[in-house]
């Protein structure tokens, strides 16, 4: 997928049908399991949502990224405040 983006094949945030097919062929050729197009797109959307949430986390004051350990770091109080806000927001949106 990164290669396709670098080639300019992700116009307006989406891949064309032909690009999705190329990605699917590449993924299936490299793995032990074969996926269908729907599964691949669902996985992509889950990864995109996780990346968005991760990026938002790092934008909050008090959070940082430790390059050596590849982990997010913050004070315990910062984590507790973040978790409390996330839980409250999820309860409100249901």
Automatic annotation (TrEMBL):
<dbReference type="InterPro" id="IPR024752">
    <property type="entry name" value="Myb/SANT-like_dom"/>
</dbReference>
<feature type="domain" description="Myb/SANT-like">
    <location>
        <begin position="1"/>
        <end position="82"/>
    </location>
</feature>
<dbReference type="Pfam" id="PF12776">
    <property type="entry name" value="Myb_DNA-bind_3"/>
</dbReference>
<protein>
    <recommendedName>
        <fullName>Myb/SANT-like domain-containing protein</fullName>
    </recommendedName>
</protein>
<dbReference type="InterPro" id="IPR045026">
    <property type="entry name" value="LIMYB"/>
</dbReference>
């Amino acid at each position: 997928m990164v290669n396709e983006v670098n080639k300019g094949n992700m116009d307006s945030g989406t891949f064309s049908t032909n690009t999705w097919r190329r990605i699917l062929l590449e993924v299936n050729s490299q793995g032990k399991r074969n996926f269908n197009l729907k599964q691949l797109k669902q996985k992509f959307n889950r990864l995109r949502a996780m990346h968005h949430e991760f990026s938002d986390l790092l934008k909050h004051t008090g959070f940082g990224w430790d390059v050596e350990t590849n982990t997010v770091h913050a004070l315990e109080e910062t984590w507790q405040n973040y978790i409390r806000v996330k839980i409250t927001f999820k309860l409100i949106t249901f």
